[in-house]
């Protein structure tokens, strides 16, 4: 069963797909409230850094270190090294990942820094990415650096 926060992250991923981008979504949650949400907008914005997690952090705006240390980040796909670095930089202690079957990101890095990492193996997240990768292999390989 998908919780409400992962459902919002999935919604963000589907928004990105509808915009012609890569379907990865993320939400930043503090004390049970979404304070930032976003999706991969590399294609839409011609950006090299607007992955779903980075977009959610950007949309949350400037926050104090104390707030980040009380947050959970939900993301539909295992975070890459860049996004994991931002998670570590801001001290976000918990990350909930929709799936890591289509892409295994830097989960080991997060775990090595004692973050709580939960992988849901969410069927909808897996299906969205499998379909996207099959239909847009060149774009997918561009995004993950192949």
Question: Could you characterize the architecture of this molecule?
Answer:
This protein is of the alpha/beta class and 146 residues long. It is 47% helix and 18% strand. It is built from eight helices and five strands, in the order αββαααβαβαβαα. Helix 5 links the parallel strand 3 (71-75) and strand 4 (94-97). The longest helix is centred in the first third of the chain and has 15 residues, at 4-18. It is globular.
Question: What's the arrangement of secondary structure elements?
Answer:
Blueprint: H1 4-18, E1 25-30, E2 33-39, H2 42-45, H3 52-60, H4 65-68, E3 71-75, H5 81-90, E4 94-97, H6 107-112, E5 116-119, H7 123-135, H8 137-144
Parallel strand pairs: 3-4, 4-5
Antiparallel strand pairs: 1-2, 1-3
Q: Roughly what fraction of the amino acids lie in strands?
A: 15-25%
The biggest sheet amounts to: 5 strands, mixed
Arrangement of strands in the largest sheet: 2-1-3-4-5
Can you tell me the residue ranges where pLDDT is under 50 for at least 5 consecutive residues?
none
How far apart are the first and last residues' alpha carbons, in Å? Answer: 33 Å
Tally of contiguous helical segments: 8
The gyration radius over C-alpha positions equals 14 Å
- Kindly state the number of beta strands: 5
**What is the chain-wise order of helices and strands?**
HEEHHHEHEHEHH
Q: By helix and strand content, what is the structural category?
A: alpha/beta
Using the alpha-carbon principal axes, give the shape. Answer: globular
Helix coverage percent: 40-55%
Overall mean confidence score, pLDDT? 95
